[in-house]
From TrEMBL:
GO terms for molecular function: DNA binding; DNA-binding transcription factor activity. It comes from Bradyrhizobium erythrophlei. Gene3D superfamilies: GntR ligand-binding domain-like, Winged helix-like DNA-binding domain superfamily/Winged helix DNA-binding domain. Keywords: DNA-binding, Transcription, Transcription regulation. This is GntR family transcriptional regulator, vanillate catabolism transcriptional regulator. Residues 16-83 form the HTH gntR-type domain.
Length: 250
C-alpha cells in the first residue's frame, strides 16, 4: 500500500513543521518510485503511518497536488499523477543543460571546504560500496543518497537561486530526480560513479567548460538508459513507464 512505502515519521512540535515534514516524506516516496503512478493515497492510513493527525496530511496532499505530483478527484481523493514517457524525457533534457550550467558555475566560483568535503565523502562512499563487484540488499538505496548528495552539493556550489529553482521543477517529475537510481546493474552504476569522479576533477581543476560538458553527457546518458529500460519494460510487460518498479543512477 502507498502509506506503507513512506519514510518513517520525523515528528515536529508545530503544525506547520508537521505538515512540511509529512509533505517532504510523501514527495520523496513519489519521486523515488516507492509509490506507484495512479496509486491512491488514503488520508486516514497516511495519518496512522506517519503518526500525525489528518490535518497536516490533508495540507500536505493539497500542496503536492498544487505542485502537480498528485491528482485530485471528488469521491476518489488523491492519486499519484501519471507522467508519460515524453514528459520524463523532457525533464531529463532540461536537467542535462541546467546541471551542466551548475557544474560550470561551481568550477568558476570554486567549492567551499564543506562542499569539497561532502563531495569527496560521496565519492569515497560510492567507491567502497561498488568495490565488491555486486550489489547486496539495500545497496541501491544507499547509493541513491550518495548520488543525491553529489548532485545537491554541486548545485549548492553554483550559488544561483534561480538555477536551483529551475532544477527543482525538473526534479518534480517522478523518475527524473537525482534521488532516483536510473541504472540498477552494477556496471552501470560503476560507470556513472566514475563520471562523478571526472566531473569533480574538472571542477577542482577550475575547468568550467569541461565540467559542464561532462555533466551534460552524464545526465544525457542516464536519459538514454531510462528510455531503453522503460520502453523495453513496456513492451515486455505492458507496464506503465512511471511505475516500472526498479528504475534506471543519475
Amino acid at each position: 500500500m502507498a502509506d506503507q512505502a513512506l519514510l518513517e515519521p520525523t515528528g515536529g512540535s508545530r503544525a506547520g513543521n508537521r505538515a512540511l515534514s509529512v509533505m517532504d516524506q510523501i514527495r520523496e516516496s513519489v519521486l523515488n518510485g516507492s509509490v506507484a503512478a495512479g496509486e491512491r493515497l488514503n488520508e486516514v492510513r497516511l495519518s496512522r503511518t506517519l503518526a500525525v493527525s489528518r490535518t497536516p496530511v490533508r495540507a500536505a496532499l493539497q500542496a503536492l497536488a498544487g505542485e502537480g505530483l498528485l491528482d485530485y478527484a471528488p469521491n476518489r481523493g488523491f492519486t499519484v499523477r501519471e507522467f508519460p514517457l515524453d514528459a520524463i524525457v523532457d525533464a531529463y533534457e532540461i536537467r542535462a543543460s541546467l546541471e551542466g550550467v551548475a557544474a560550470r558555475f561551481a568550477a568558476e566560483r570554486g567549492l567551499s571546504p564543506d562542499e569539497k568535503a561532502t563531495i569527496e565523502r560521496s565519492l569515497r562512499d560510492g567507491d567502497r560500496l561498488l568495490e565488491r563487484g555486486s550489489f547486496e540488499t539495500g545497496d541501491l538505496t544507499i547509493y541513491r543518497d550518495i548520488n543525491g548528495d553529489f548532485h545537491d552539493t554541486l548545485l549548492a556550489a553554483a550559488r544561483n537561486r534561480m538555477l536551483a529553482e529551475m532544477i527543482r521543477i525538473c526534479h518534480h517529475v517522478p523518475v527524473s530526480s537525482s534521488r532516483n537510481i536510473v541504472a540498477f546493474e552494477h556496471r552501470d552504476v560503476r560507470r556513472r560513479h566514475d563520471d562523478h569522479h571526472r566531473i569533480y576533477e574538472a571542477i577542482i581543476a577550475r575547468e568550467p567548460w569541461r565540467a559542464e560538458m561532462l555533466m551534460r553527457e552524464h545526465v544525457a546518458s542516464v536519459k538514454a538508459s531510462l528510455v531503453k529500460s522503460l520502453t523495453e519494460g513496456s513492451r515486455d510487460n505492458d507496464a506503465d513507464p512511471t511505475s516500472a518498479g526498479q528504475l534506471p543512477v543519475k
